[in-house]
Write a structure and sequence with these properties.
Blueprint: H1 2-35, H2 39-46, E1 48-53, E2 62-66, E3 69-73, H3 75-87, E4 90-95, H4 98-106, E5 112-113, H5 121-124, E6 127-129, E7 138-143, E8 160-164, H6 168-176, E9 181-185, H7 188-197, E10 202-206, H8 207-216, E11 220-222, E12 238-240, H9 244-259, H10 262-279
Parallel strand pairs: 1-4, 1-5, 8-9, 8-10
Antiparallel strand pairs: 2-3, 6-12, 7-10, 7-11
Helix pairs in contact: 3-9, 3-10, 8-10
């Protein structure tokens, strides 16, 4: 009788554990399904596309006064607004330091990151990226008083060369200006000030950006030094890892806008706007 009772108790215990285990699996499945909810559907449901950027990189993203109010504008901002319109939602842009733009994706604070970002191999390991939407040449900004001195990469040996912290320009300094001293700075305008003052000998920046800052600062110029261009330096939109369906949809929209000439138009219009803002 004790044996029978013991067997019954054991069976009851196993049944109870199995029941508990089944409940646990359902909870896990539910959690997994929630996490894997399609990002595109979630954005459309919310009606908002949350965008992370670093608005210090005219003409792609910068601040200007519109109707007496400070506003974030730029080619990248026009692009995300066009994307949001295609998706039937509104773009909500947040300004932050460039080296925290991608971190905001990991933390779930933004849906996309757009800030003249290059899809490097290292970044692709952690994020999804759209197709490239703009491939800019890279240049060096120097003070005009050094134009006869800084005429080659070798001339910048042991010199302080600035690049925005967390940007592709840091890699350009490391690989193409190996004998120079890399100085990483969070904001591009701060680098411009330092080149003006002489605490930086030069800075690496995308050509369209350089043209805007040179226009605003008559003591500066683009150095007559060629830097090698690469597809790795082209701009793309960053997405959270695994956003495959969203990535496909964005690629379709980017191709459409590119085929229509809209992206080049955004860059041109905002280059003009940045120059106008600098003169006001």
């Amino acid at each position: 009788m004790k044996k029978i009772t013991g067997i019954v108790m054991t069976l009851l215990a196993l049944f109870t554990l199995a029941a508990c285990g089944g409940g646990s699996d359902k909870t896990a499945d539910s959690s997994s399904n929630t996490k894997s909810e399609d990002q595109l559907a979630a954005i459309k449901k919310a009606g908002v596309l949350k965008v992370a950027t670093s608005a210090d990189y005219a003409p792609f993203e910068f601040h200007t006064m519109v109707d007496g109010k400070d506003k974030i504008v730029g080619a990248d901002i026009d692009l995300v607004n066009a994307i949001a319109k295609e998706l039937g939602v509104k773009a909500e842009v947040s300004d932050m330091s460039f080296n925290t733009v991608l971190a905001s994706l990991k933390e779930g604070k933004s849906d996309i990151a757009i800030s003249a970002i290059s899809a490097t191999k290292e970044r692709k390991e952690q994020f999804n990226f759209t197709d490239n939407y703009y491939n800019p040449p890279q240049v060096l900004i120097i003070n005009k008083k050094n134009q006869d001195k800084f005429t080659s990469v070798d001339a910048l040996k042991d010199k302080n060369v600035g690049a925005q912290k967390g940007s592709i320009q840091e890699d350009i300094v490391k690989t193409q200006l190996k004998d120079s001293k890399l100085v990483s700075i969070e904001k591009v305008p701060n680098m411009v000030i330092e080149v003006n003052s002489g605490s930086l000998d030069a800075m690496v920046v995308e050509k369209t950006i350089a043209e805007s800052y040179v226009e605003q600062n008559p003591d500066l110029m683009i150095a007559n030094i060629d830097l090698k261009a690469s597809d790795d330096e082209a701009f793309a939109i960053a997405l959270p890892k695994g956003s495959d369906q969203f990535q496909t949809e964005l690629n379709k929209i980017i191709k459409k806008l590119s085929d229509e000439g809209k992206i080049d138009e955004f860059v041109k219009q905002n280059h003009e706007l940045a120059e106008k803002s600098a003169k006001e």
